[in-house]
């Protein structure tokens, strides 16, 4: 079954923290582009939504995915982690056959 990506409560909570720190509530854009050490790479940044984006929303906070990236993120989980090596948004992607050590690029 094909499902859109899912965003964890922890990721939405981090967006709320960012909005509180910056005084600006911008959506988190999650995209996929060619490149990286494994063939594709994730593009994760704060950005305004476009008209054809998929919008995932909770309590007014939004994560947006463009239609070109959406097939690469089917059934994926967008999360936030805060570990000893650093804090960052991460993608758990069941479509990836392999990924690099840092988790920012993958292959299908």
UniProtKB/TrEMBL annotation:
Concerning Gene3D superfamilies, the annotation shows: HesB-like domain (2.60.300.12)
- For the Core domain, which residue ranges apply? 7-103
- GO biological processes: iron-sulfur cluster assembly
List the InterPro entries: ATAP, ATAP_core_dom, FeS_cluster_insertion_CS, HesB-like_dom_sf
**Example GO molecular function:** 4 iron, 4 sulfur cluster binding
Name it: Iron-sulfur cluster assembly accessory protein
């Amino acid at each position: 079954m094909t499902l859109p990506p899912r965003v964890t409560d922890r990721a939405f909570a981090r967006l709320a923290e960012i909005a509180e720190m910056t005084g600006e509530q911008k959506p988190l854009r999650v995209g996929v582009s060619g490149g990286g050490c494994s063939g594709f790479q994730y593009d994760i940044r704060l950005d305004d939504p476009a008209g054809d984006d998929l919008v995932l929303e909770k309590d007014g906070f939004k994560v947006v995915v463009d239609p070109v990236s959406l097939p690469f993120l089917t059934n994926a989980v967008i999360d936030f982690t805060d570990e000893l090596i650093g804090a960052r948004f991460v993608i758990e992607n069941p479509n990836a056959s392999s990924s690099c050590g840092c988790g920012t690029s993958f292959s299908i």
